[in-house]
Design goal:
Helix content: 40-55%
Number of domains: 2
Strand order of the largest sheet: 2-1-3-4-5-6
CATH superfamily of the largest domain: Glycogen Phosphorylase B
Shape: elongated
Number of strands: 12
Largest sheet: 6 strands, parallel
Order of helices and strands: EHEHHHEHEEHEHHEEHEHEHEHEHHH
Number of helices: 15
CATH architecture of the largest domain: 3-Layer(aba) Sandwich
Amino acid sequence: MEKILIVTTDWGHGSIAKSIREVTEKKYKTDLAVIGVEPFSKVSYELIYKYFPSLFKIVFWFSEIKILKKLFDSYVERSYKGKIRSVIKRSKPNIVMNTYFAFNSSLESFKDKFSFRFINVLADPLTFSRILISENTKNLVFDEYSLRKLKTFEPQADGQLVGWFTEKKFYEIGKKERSSVRKELGLSPNRFTLCITSGSEGTYHVLKIVKTFLSPRYDIQVLIMCGNNKQLLDTVHTLRSVSEKIGGPKIIAVAYTKEIHKYMRAADIVVGKAGPNTIFESVATLTPFFAISHVAGQEDGNLEIIKRYGVGFVEERIVAATKNIQEIIESPKRLAKFQRNLKILAKYCQTSEENLLKVLKP
């Protein structure tokens, strides 16, 4: 039996890697190696991610310049090459799949020496830069538009359309009635429910719409997913106390959890930052998504996915977003129009399993 090594990080790339492992372990012996992000990159990215997502457009623009890719590759190899070598020597894989672009150059340099097939999984569906692409191996992309864009950047690059990898638990929970999932989570089964996501690290941008909910006029429940951001969690606990005093909505603060799929399915709509995994996880649970922010540059294409596939709303202007969400709360039937499109996109993404197994064949 051939052996597959999946290399990833503890960011959102890890969710993609876990989804891939669910597929590969059916037919291949599979190792999953999580390599921590280099400290400077981690701190700087999380600072922008949490507080200044619009500034990332500048960083993203630089990443598209071809000559800078060589400088970037040289920098990340110094940070990761030793760790990756150790993982490969320990695992002895026949195939290596990578979900974090910063590992590409090191894996490219090792694939002949250690005799493995290398497959690069692009962790951004529509908006990606030159540094995400591997010129010397197969690149797995989301859809036809992604494939065309890949060829625009690197005409010689080998691209393969596969869909998107999402853990099966999101599709499975999508088959359950929302009311029964709410009961399981200790929520009111019949009350209109919003799930406010903030990404795994908890971006503060989700707080810009909180005033929408702090009103006695709304008999709703609001689930605010805080990720690993303790300060955000504390802030939401304070908001809950305020809402209780004024007789407002029931606000539930949720720290990082492996049961996010249940909270998404429990909700009538998911609201938050337009991260790719969050969008596709919401789609898998057949829950419309309302994007109120995104990381500029890197996640521009995620907004396009919502619009193009018709699976939710996009409105980042605070006043307009607040008004739209209020209208949804007052007229939930507006959300019914998204169900057909959600099912179509979810079905397409589920073909990623079949598509990947074809790619893995010798």
